[in-house]
Write a structure and sequence with these properties.
alpha/beta; TIM Barrel; eight-stranded parallel beta barrel; two-stranded antiparallel sheet; 12 helices; globular
Length: 323
C-alpha cells in the first residue's frame, strides 16, 4: 500500500480507500473489510443511508476484532431514502446534524467518527450553516475532522472558512475531469486532500457490461453530451492495449491513472468481495511513466471527458428532489 504524506487523526491514510456503499451480505462485508485492512488500507468510507444503516452495522462487526484507533472512518449524512431504497432528497439542515450523528455513533459502536460530511449541499441552506453544525460536533468531541462532498471551488472556500476541511470527496475519472478546472487547484491551495470516487465512470471503464452502463448514462444526459461521451468511450482502446502490455486489467490501469494525478489523491473502491478487493488494490503497484500518461492523454484528451455523468441535483426548499 501507499499512503498520503501527512497524518490525519494520527493515522496515515492509504491512497486507496474502501467504500462500503454496496455491502449487503454481512459476512462477506466483514471478510472484505478485514482483507482491506490486512492489505494496508486505513480509510473506510460509508454513509448513514447506505443500506438504511446496514453498511455502518457491518463496519461495526468487522472492527470488533481490530483496533479502532488504527482505522479512519468517514461518514456521509443527509441522504433520504424511501422504504424501497429510492433517494428522494437531501437533509442537511443544521438542526438535523446531531440527530443523524447520534444514530451513526450507535450503529458503528464508537464514540467518535474520524470524518463527517454532508452527502450533498442544499443550495437553499447556506453551506456555512451546515458546516457550522458539523463544527459544533467537533467541539463536542464526536467528530475529529470535517469533510464535504460534491461541491464546487467557491463552496469549498466558504466551507473551509467556517471550519478547516480535511478532505473533499468528488467524482473523478478519465471520462469525468471537471474537477481539474478549479476544484483541484483550490483544494491544493487550501491544503485539502482529495478523495475520488466513480474512478471507473460507473462501470463504463473496465466493467462487465460497459455498453449497458453507457446506454443508461446516455439516457440521463443532453444529446450533445451523450454523443461526446460515446466518442470518448470509443477511444478507450488505448487502455486495453496498455493493460495487456503491463499485464494488468483495464480497471486497475484506470485507478492507477487517477492516483498518478497527484500524491494528495485517495481513490475509493467499492469492492464487495475479498476477491474483488485483492484484485483492485493491485492498482497501487502500477507506476505510470510520464510517457504512459502522455499516451493516455493523447488518446483521451480532457476535452472528450464528460461533465454530465451525474447531473446536478435540483432540490426544492425542503431538500426534496425536483423531478
Amino acid at each position: 500500500m501507499k499512503y498520503l504524506n501527512k497524518e490525519t487523526n494520527g493515522i496515515t491514510l492509504s491512497r486507496i480507500g474502501l467504500g462500503a456503499m454496496r455491502m449487503a451480505d454481512i459476512q462477506q462485508g466483514i471478510d472484505t473489510i478485514h482483507a482491506a485492512l490486512d492489505s494496508g488500507i486505513t480509510y473506510l468510507n460509508t454513509g448513514d443511508f447506505y443500506g438504511h444503516g446496514e453498511s455502518e452495522l457491518i463496519i461495526r462487526e468487522a472492527l470488533k476484532t481490530r483496533k479502532r484507533e488504527d482505522v479512519f472512518i468517514s461518514v456521509k449524512f443527509g441522504g433520504m431514502l424511501t422504504p424501497d431504497d429510492r433517494f428522494y432528497g437531501i437533509d442537511v439542515r443544521p438542526q438535523s446534524v446531531q440527530n443523524y450523528l447520534a444514530y451513526t455513533l450507535k450503529r458503528l459502536g464508537t464514540d467518535y467518527v474520524d470524518l463527517y460530511q454532508p452527502a450533498r449541499i442544499n443550495p437553499h441552506i447556506p453551506v456555512e450553516e451546515t458546516i457550522g453544525a458539523v463544527s459544533d460536533m467537533v467541539k463536542a468531541g464526536y467528530v475529529r475532522n470535517v469533510g464535504i462532498t460534491e461541491i464546487d471551488a467557491g463552496t469549498l472556500r466558504r466551507a473551509h472558512a467556517v471550519h478547516p476541511i480535511s478532505l473533499v470527496e468528488v467524482r473523478y475519472s478519465l471520462l469525468d475531469r471537471e474537477i481539474e478546472q478549479s476544484l483541484i487547484p483550490t483544494a491544493r491551495e487550501l491544503g485539502i486532500g482529495i478523495v475520488t470516487f466513480a474512478n471507473l465512470f460507473h462501470g463504463v471503464i473496465g466493467g462487465s457490461n460497459p455498453e449497458e452502463k453507457l446506454a443508461t448514462l446516455s439516457r440521463r444526459m443532453p444529446p450533445q453530451a451523450a454523443e461526446k461521451l460515446k466518442q470518448a468511450v470509443a477511444r478507450l482502446d488505448v487502455l486495453k492495449e496498455m493493460a495487456a502490455e503491463k499485464n494488468v486489467s483495464v480497471s486497475q490501469l484506470a485507478i492507477a491513472w487517477v492516483l498518478a494525478q497527484g500524491g494528495d489523491m485517495l481513490a475509493l473502491v467499492g469492492s464487495r468481495t475479498v476477491g474483488q478487493l485483492r484484485d483492485t488494490v493491485k492498482a497501487i503497484e502500477i507506476d505510470l511513466s510520464k510517457e504512459d500518461l502522455q499516451r493516455i492523454e493523447q488518446a483521451i484528451p480532457k476535452e472528450y471527458a464528460s461533465n454530465s455523468a451525474m447531473l446536478p441535483i435540483d432540490l426544492d426548499e425542503n431538500g426534496l428532489f425536483k423531478f
